[in-house]
Amino acid sequence: MRELALYNEDNFREIERHEGVAVVRFSAPWCPPCQMSEDIFNHFAEQTESDVKVGKVNVDLAPVLTTKYEIWGLPSVLMFKDGQLVQRIPGVKSAGFYQQALSELKKGQ
Fold first, then answer.
1. What is the residue range of the signal peptide feature (predicted)?
2. Are 75 and 25 in contact (CB under 8 A)?
């Protein structure tokens, strides 16, 4: 089972300095859609190639990141390429939807 990194203000530089693709889910434990879709994102992460960084941010523990990346709705999945935000996916989506978005992003490499 793939261990998902938990990111906050202290370690998010790993994403911002990563050369390659990274996918980060912003959510909160009190958010019903976040709770409902947790397993969907975890399934997506399990299917993702090991060269892609995948992690999560609890918005309650990372208010600066939440503001910096303009997270207004939860859950939100952000995709980064070489440290730059390239795609924002708000709301609950299927694992297949995330995989398709990731495939399209990787094709553009």
1. none
2. yes
Closest CA to 74 of 95, 89, 96, 64: 89
Give the CA-trace dihedral at 13, 1, 48, 87, to 10 degrees: -40
41 and 71 in contact (C-beta within 8 Å)? no
The CA–CA distances, whole Å, from 27 to 8, 18, 32 equal 12, 22, 10
Size of the chain, expressed as the number of residues it contains: 109
pLDDT value, residue 76? 98
Task: Report how far residue 52's alpha carbon sits from residue 10's, in angstroms, rounded to the nearest whole number.
Answer: 20
Say which amino acid occupies 11. N
With cut-offs at 50, 70 and 90, classify the pLDDT of residue 63: very high
| pTM of the predicted protein model | 0.95
Strand partners, 94: none
- Active site residue ranges: 31, 34
